[in-house]
Amino acid sequence: MNLNDDPLVLLGLSCPYCGNPTKLVEDSQIYGRPYGTKCYICEPCGAWVGCHKNSDKALGRVANKELRELKHRAHDAFDPIWKNGHLRRTQAYEVLSIALGLPTEQTHIGMFNEEICRKTIKISTEIISNIMNITVLAKKIISWYYDGFNGRGKKYVEKALLIMASDVGIDRIQVKREELIEKDSLFSDINNVIMLLSQLREDGYTSIEQKWSGYEYNYFVATKMSDETNEEYYQRLAKEVEPYIEKLVKEEDNKKAKIERIKQLENELRQLKNT
After folding, report:
1. pLDDT level of residue 54 (50, 70, 90 thresholds)
2. Could you tell me the pLDDT band of residue 233, with boundaries at 50, 70 and 90?
3. Residue 217 contacts residue 185 (beta carbons within 8 Å)
């Protein structure tokens, strides 16, 4: 996934609503008094964005009232993840980046549109509510599946679980249960519905939900508790989280490779200057 807007929109230089270039103004034009910063504004649309202090660089895209409010709500939901010490700031943004499926360079709330802001609010709320459970779960997985992770993998378990929880839902990884694939309820024939429900209960599915699709309830999802042992449960979760861990390890390797390449180029440049 990418923010497929014009790069000029993401930089605040073009208006996403009308497509016209924005105008750089003193912040007093927006706030009614000076605060020592500048803003980009699209006057016809009433959309604007502030700039970094002592800079003409915009904080993101220009936004109308609705988007400005959503950005504030997104920050209110997301920032406590790192401000309250649950994760380091860079880690929190990495988790958000993967959960949203966005490149890290585009994972800035200032760049987000309305849809991504709403997703950020939902994901952040889920992460914060799940952090304590995830921390405990990560320790249990490591203790039950100690030999399953190499030395590098262990430090990523908690972070990978957070990403997995935002991806598949905390209930999916927190409870030992089996989930039935969506089952057509055949609402055209009530006798078929009764037979289906009866069969599900005979098979041990105690939690049966009607699901809404379009304009009517037309399928069921049923769940039942698994009879797996604690060891089997934690080992299964460990295997399910492994792809998330591998992705994090690979990303770290890529970052290290880029840093090493930059250092190499800097050394080569210094050598050229000295010759």
Report:
1. confident
2. confident
3. yes
Provide the greatest CA pair distance for the chain.
89
Q: What is the 3-state secondary structure (H, E, C) of 136-175?
A: HHHHHHHHHCHHHCCHHHHCCHHHHHHHHHHHHCHHHHHC
Q: Please, what sign has the CA dihedral across residues 212, 214, 218, 222?
A: negative
Please indicate, yes or no, whether the overall pTM of this predicted structure exceeds 0.85: no
Nearest by Cα to 185 from 166, 202, 209, 161:
209
In whole angstroms, what is the distance from residue 222 CA to residue 218 CA?
14
Helix (H) or strand (E) segment spanning residue 110: none
> Count of alpha carbons within 13 Å of 61, Cβ hemisphere only?
32
Nearest to 11 by CA among 65, 45, 62, 72: 62
Taking a C-beta distance cutoff of 8 angstroms, is the pair 18, 45 a contact?
yes
Interior/surface letters 183-197, b for 16+ CB within 10 angstroms, e for the rest? bebeeeeeeeeeebe
Query: Helices 65-78 and 114-144, interaxial angle, to 10°?
Result: 10
For β-strands 38-42 and 47-50, DSSP reports them as antiparallel
Convert the pLDDT of each residue in 84-121 to its tens digit: 877 778 878 887 887 788 888 888 898 899 999 998 99
Show the tokens assigned to 109. 């709330």
Strand partners, 221: 209
Number of residues that make up the chain = 275
Q: Give me the amino acid identity at 48.
A: W
pLDDT digits (tens, 9 = 90+) for 246-272: 888 888 888 888 888 888 888 878 787
Q: Which amino acid is at 165?
A: A
Residue type at 221?
V
